[in-house]
Amino acid sequence: MNQADVTKLMSQLRIAVRPNKRNLKNPDGPEGRLLKLRKTVTALVKHERIELFYNRADEARGYAELVSPSPLNVSSISHSSCCILQLISNAIRYGDRHKATMELADYWLLEKQLVHKLFKVLVPRYENHNLSYTRMYKAPRDYPGIYYKQSVLELRGNPYPTLATDHSQNRNLLHNVLLDEARKEFRRNKLADLVNSTQ
Asked: What's the pTM?
């Protein structure tokens, strides 16, 4: 059977997406919810690291990136299903002269000077990237206070210090303990060989 490979028609996310619906409510209805997401994506592009509630960050992360090396036919996809997810990836794929990409950037970025940052700063940074464009960390909760999960959402390659701790220098990790013991045994054997050779 000669069937078309349908997976090449749509870009693929490199992040996990929850299959069930989120119940993120807004007093202004769906328009208010979209405005809140637009503000979150704008803040992410502007500051490159933001701290917010986990559910909001997880949803905004999907709107900030959709990555695939294959080209995407933007005109064939409905706006509500996929086009809003392709901000950074369409900027990389099509550049600033593509009308649909500029409309997408104009819609999602509320501050218009950030469109310039998207094409002149973020596109060169992520051109040869094979990982997701964003990284999300769980942040500690404030106690006493609101019990909602907190998180930090950031763009990869931002100028801020890393939030991930380097565990490779922890002496109590198993591989570091084994390497220390192997090093001590090697030195004992070398010292014993040196003593035997001098006698």
From this structure: 0.69
